[in-house]
Specification:
The complex is a heterodimer of chains A (285) and B (293). Chain A has 285 residues and is an all-alpha fold. Chain A contains 14 helices and no strands. The longest helix of chain A has 41 residues. Chain B is an all-alpha fold. Helices cover 73% and strands 0% of the residues of chain B. In chain B, helix 8 runs antiparallel to helix 11 and helix 11 packs antiparallel against helix 14. Chain B is globular. Classes of the chains: A mainly alpha (285), B mainly alpha (293). At the A-B interface, helix 1, helix 4, helix 5, helix 6 and helix 7 of A face helix 1, helix 3, helix 4, helix 5 and helix 6 of B.
């Protein structure tokens, strides 16, 4: 009796679940097969890549392609350049957006509402309108072909969206912390550094990850501001590799994969912060 | 004490204020001024009145072509991406599903792939002779396509590519779906309504804020797309993917017509503002924000 009942129960929800898993597994393939295609192409010889019909598996796994790609393509230099932009920009963005988030979320000062409205406005303002005047401004002060444009943007609040995230998070923390610290004679700088920064660790990590991803992926900024090859970032470097080896798709795919792997690894490690950040902007924004 | 707090507030705000004034709104105004001049990167600029604007609207062949291509891409990518994102989110929202986090991670990965790497990969997959897509279609005995290399299929191909990265809106939909009260869904069950009734009358209204947010952000992002046209198609074939942001870039940084490109940027900004207003008017009203807020 009980056996039959169990079987009945299993049967009841099984068919729909099988269809569900079938769809999800199909979706998994759709998501991952392109990345496999990148890997597969990066491991083939140039002759094999241009075989028709294309092969799904390489006849031999030529890891040597990566060595050759690194020789032809100054990956290390581009990586160092990207880091030269990234590290100061992540620090500047996290620090200055947290400062502004603290002021907007927890302090009261005249004109606060206006500054907050202007911050929201800056979030919606499409970037393409300020691209040209910014370029002219930077070229006037001799800052093109340097990393100054990136540093300035990062150390001046680091983007309205990050300020907004910080403000939203800081608002939710109880005010009693600040008040009791004030009674103990702490200054606002001490409150910010000793009490709020530790409490805000999750949102600081979220903003740091977002900023990392932004500068790691950024293409239009470096394209406009950087002219000399020895200042190029990875994103620009890969494109110049394509210019030099137009049909060497194995090397181009190898270089692309070099750019994909750190981003995916960072996502895998910081996934919780990443997804919470996206949800926070999307749902409460 | 109050004065003290005000001073502290402004000190903490100082970097942001500098950024907002000099790097955002100041530049916004500067851009408007440039758009009325014949500014190039070197040399003095002269005031030319509305000349840039009239030339753009009446003489520039590329302008209208570009607006049309951008609209097609923006709406195409919004529809494709949001449908894919919503579909995946609905699948993942099933309470009997195991491995939800695993699948969510997998579906998110395409959004993590850096834009330039993703463009190069898709270019290679779209290759008519040696690419993955035509190999797949051939294996199934279906007709092949020239993908981004033909005028008629270029924009649809880029739309397809944009839907691959539906992970970010999908995550937002998932959090919206998690907030749909089970009691409402049970009420439909009691009344004898099916899955479709639940979806149309409960789920859609309850997630309408995120639906609205994702759609609006998708339209704006689609309108501002740049990397795909720069890296993959250079605006071609036959200007089919000459998206406005690429056209602005080309006029300013390749043809050195900063004044003209600024006028173009302003027209695009106004078009986008009107579009946003329309979306707010038609869909904003229907958004259900609950009893609070």
């Amino acid at each position: 009796m009980t056996r039959i009942e169990l079987r009945k129960k299993k049967r009841k929800f099984r068919p729909s679940l099988i269809i569900l898993y079938a769809f999800l597994i199909a979706g998994t393939f759709v998501c991952l097969v392109p990345l496999y295609w990148m890997l597969r192409s990066s491991l083939m010889s140039n002759a094999e890549i241009f075989v028709f019909p294309p092969r799904f598996f390489p006849s031999s796994w030529r890891w040597n392609n990566y060595v050759k790609t690194f020789q032809n393509f100054e990956a290390l230099m581009y990586f160092t350049n990207t880091m030269k932009i990234l590290v100061p920009c992540v620090i500047g963005t996290v620090l200055t957006s947290a400062m502004a988030g603290y002021a907007l979320g927890r302090l009261s000062f005249p004109g606060k509402k206006i500054w907050f409205a202007l911050t929201i406005g800056a979030m919606i303002l499409p970037g393409h309108v300020v691209l040209i005047p910014l370029y002219l401004t930077y070229s006037f002060i001799g800052a093109t072909n340097t990393y100054t444009p990136f540093y300035l943007a990062a150390w001046c609040g680091g983007g309205a969206a990050n300020v907004f995230l910080m403000r939203q998070f800081m608002r939710t923390l109880p005010r009693e912390y600040d008040e009791s610290a004030m009674i103990d004679g702490a200054s606002r700088l001490q409150i910010f550094l000793r009490i709020l920064v530790p409490l805000c660790a999750p949102i600081l990590i979220t903003v740091a990850i977002f900023t990392f991803m932004f500068y790691w992926n950024d293409f239009q900024g470096p394209l406009i501001y950087l002219r000399s090859d020895n200042k190029f970032t990875l994103a620009l470097g890969i494109l110049s590799l394509r210019g030099a080896y137009a049909s060497k798709w194995n090397y181009i795919m190898a270089a692309s994969l070099v750019m994909v792997v750190p981003a995916v690894l960072l996502f895998a490690v910081g996934q919780r912060y990443f997804i919470e950040g996206i949800v926070l902007t999307g749902v409460k924004g | 004490m109050r004065r003290n707090e005000a001073i502290a507030g402004y000190l903490f705000m100082l970097p942001l204020i500098i950024g907002i004034v000099f790097l955002t709104y100041g530049q916004f105004v500067y851009s408007l001024i440039i758009s009325f001049t014949d500014q190039s990167v070197f040399g003095a600029s002269n005031f030319v009145g509305f000349q840039n604007y009239t030339k753009l609207l009446t003489e520039d062949f590329f302008f209208w072509k570009s607006i049309k291509a951008t609209m097609l891409y923006a709406f195409g990518s919004v529809i494709a991406t949001q449908l894919a994102a919503l579909a995946v989110a609905l699948l993942l929202n099933n309470k009997h599903l195991r491995g939800k986090t695993f699948f969510r991670t997998i579906f998110y990965i395409p959004s993590i792939v850096p834009a330039v790497a993703s463009c190069l990969l898709w270019m290679w997959m779209f290759n008519p002779d040696f690419g993955l897509f035509n190999a797949f279609l051939k294996a199934l005995g279906l007709p092949t396509s020239k993908w981004i290399y033909a005028e008629s299929s270029a924009v649809p191909s880029l739309v397809l590519m944009s839907a691959w990265a539906c992970g970010a809106p999908m995550v937002i939909y998932l959090s919206g779906l998690a907030n749909v009260p089970p009691s409402l869904l049970e009420a439909v069950d009691i009344d004898g309504g099916g899955a479709w009734t639940k979806f149309i009358h409960i789920t859609i209204p309850m997630i309408s804020p995120v639906l609205f947010y994702n759609t609006l952000m998708g339209v704006i992002a689609g309108f501002m797309t740049f990397t795909n046209s720069y890296v993959m198609t250079e605006g071609g074939p036959n200007n089919a993917t000459l998206f406005v942001n690429y056209l602005i870039y080309r006029d300013a940084f390749q043809y050195n017509e900063f004044g003209y490109a600024s006028a173009l940027a302003w027209i695009v900004f106004l078009v986008l503002a009107v579009l946003t207003l329309i979306i707010f008017r038609f869909f904003g009203k229907k958004v259900y924000y609950g009893d609070k807020d």
